[in-house]
Write a structure and sequence with these properties.
Shape: elongated
Radius of gyration: 25 Å
CATH class of the largest domain: Alpha Beta
Largest sheet: 7 strands, antiparallel
Strand order of the largest sheet: 4-3-2-1-5-6-7
Number of helices: 13
Structural class: alpha/beta
Distance between the termini: 58 Å
CATH architecture of the largest domain: 3-Layer(aba) Sandwich
Number of strands: 14
Strand content: 15-25%
Length: 395
C-alpha cells in the first residue's frame, strides 16, 4: 500500500513531470478534496506541436464551458503552479517513461503511486480529438479496478443512461442516498459513486452483497480509490437495512433471475425516486412457460415457446415487459433501453424508472391483466408486491 507523504513533496514531482514537455503525454487534475469545490472542476494539460513550436495546451472545465490556453513552456511555471494549487483530489500524469497517480487523503496528505508507462507513449498533437468521458479515463479508480478500455466504455455508457434521470429528478446539487442491491464486484457501484459524489458532494452510497469476500474486496478497493462516502454491507436484497434513511436512487445491475424482482420490490416500498435495473437471467418465467412440457400461450404463438432456445429468449422479453408494466401500475414512468453494446453482453437491457406517484390508468391495468392471462404466468414481482398491487388496482 502506498505510504502517505507531504502533499507539497508529491506536487513537486507532478510539477516537474508536467513542465518536461519533451516527455509529457498528458496530465489530468480532477475530483475534489474534502470540503472544497475546485474551480475549474477539471483540467487537462498536454504537449502539442504548433507552428510556434511545442507548447503546453491547458483545457479547463468551467461552469461556462471548456477554456483552452496554449502556454510557452519556458514561462509556464507560474500558470502550472496555479493549477497545482487548485484543490483537486486526484492528479493523473503520464510521461513517456512513468505514470503518476496522486490522491489527496482526508488528512490532506498525498498518496503517490509511480509505475512504468505501459505500451508505447505517444505525444498528442494539436489535432488529437479528446473524447468527453463522464469519468476521466485517467481517474485512479480505473487503475484500482484494473479496468481496460472496454470496461471504461461500459462505465461511460451506464453513466450516460443514469445522468439525465438523476439530473431531472433532483434539483440543484444536494447530496443523494444511493443503494446498489446485489452489487457483485461493484465496479459500476464505484463508478456511479465517483460521478455522483463529484457533482453532488456529500452523496452516500451503500453496496449490498451476499458474499462476504466480495464485500471485503470492494471495501478495500473503495479505500484505495479514495471513494469517501461509499460503503459495502453483507446481506440479502430482501432484508438488508442500508442505514441511509431516505433512499433516492436504487441500482440493481445484473442481479440474477428473481434477485432483480427482490430489488425492484425494495425500491417500490422505499418509494425510491429513481430506479435503474439491468436484469441478468430470467429463469422464473421461462420455467413457467415450460411447465408440463407443452407450449402454453395464446394461439398461434405456441410456436414461440415450443423450441427451448426461442422460449428462453422470449422469456427474457416477457419478464422485462411485465416488470415495466407493474412499475407503471405502481406509480413509475418507465422505459427499457439498451444498456451496453451487445458485443459486451447479451444481457444488455436496462429498466429505467422514475417515480411519479400517478395512479394507474384503466388501459395499463387491462394490458397487464391480459398479458398474464394469455401467457398463463405469474411474475415474481407481482408476488412480492401483492399488497401494493391490490391497493393500486382497488384505488
Amino acid at each position: 500500500m502506498t505510504v502517505p507523504e507531504p502533499l507539497e513533496t508529491a506536487l513537486d514531482q507532478i510539477r516537474s513531470a508536467v513542465l518536461d514537455v519533451d516527455r509529457l503525454v498528458r496530465a489530468v487534475g480532477s475530483g475534489r478534496r474534502r470540503g472544497t469545490q475546485p474551480d475549474p472542476s477539471r483540467v487537462e494539460i498536454r504537449a502539442v506541436d504548433l507552428k510556434a513550436g511545442r507548447l503546453l495546451q491547458v483545457v479547463s472545465t468551467t461552469p461556462s464551458g471548456p477554456l483552452t490556453r496554449n502556454l510557452d513552456p519556458d514561462g509556464a511555471g507560474p500558470q502550472v503552479e496555479a493549477l497545482l494549487a487548485v484543490p483537486f483530489g486526484n492528479w493523473h500524469v503520464e510521461t513517456a517513461e512513468t505514470t503518476f497517480q496522486l490522491r489527496v487523503t482526508k488528512r490532506g496528505e498525498a498518496q503517490l503511486h509511480r509505475a512504468a508507462t505501459s505500451g508505447r507513449a505517444v505525444l498528442p498533437s494539436a489535432h488529437d480529438r479528446v473524447k468527453n468521458r463522464l469519468i476521466d479515463p485517467g481517474d485512479p479508480l480505473f487503475t484500482v479496478l484494473g479496468a481496460d478500455a472496454d470496461k471504461r466504455r461500459q462505465v461511460d455508457a451506464f453513466l450516460r443512461l443514469a445522468e439525465p434521470l438523476v439530473r431531472k429528478a433532483f434539483d440543484g446539487d444536494r447530496p443523494l442516498s444511493v443503494v446498489d442491491l446485489g452489487c457483485g464486484n461493484a465496479y459500476l457501484t464505484m463508478a456511479a459513486h465517483r460521478f455522483l459524489a463529484d457533482h453532488r458532494p456529500g452523496t452516500r452510497t451503500v453496496g449490498v452483497e451476499l458474499r462476504a469476500d466480495l464485500v471485503e474486496r470492494s471495501t478495500a478497493r473503495a479505500t484505495r480509490a479514495g471513494l469517501d462516502g461509499l460503503t459495502f454491507v453483507e446481506g440479502t436484497i430482501a432484508a438488508v437495512d442500508p442505514g441511509l434513511g431516505r433512499v433516492d436512487v436504487v441500482l440493481a445491475l445484473h442481479a440474477c433471475d428473481t434477485a432483480t424482482d427482490e430489488a425492484l420490490a425494495r425500491a417500490v416500498r422505499w418509494q425510491a425516486p429513481v430506479v435503474l435495473a439491468a436484469p441478468c437471467c430470467h429463469h422464473d418465467v421461462q420455467r413457467q412457460l415450460a411447465l408440463g412440457g407443452g407450449a402454453p400461450g395464446p394461439s398461434p404463438y405456441q410456436a414461440i415457446t415450443r423450441h427451448p432456445i426461442l422460449r428462453e429468449r422470449f422469456a427474457d422479453v416477457l419478464t422485462d415487459a411485465l416488470r415495466a408494466s407493474l412499475l407503471r401500475i405502481l406509480g413509475y414512468r418507465v422505459d427499457v433501453v439498451e444498456f451496453v453494446d451487445s458485443r459486451h453482453t447479451p444481457r444488455n437491457a436496462m429498466v429505467r424508472a422514475v417515480r411519479t406517484g400517478a395512479a394507474p390508468t384503466q388501459g395499463q391495468l387491462e394490458e397487464y391483466s391480459e398479458l398474464v392471462r394469455q401467457w398463463q404466468v405469474t411474475p415474481e414481482l407481482a408476488r412480492r408486491l401483492a399488497p401494493e398491487l391490490a391497493a393500486a388496482v382497488g384505488g
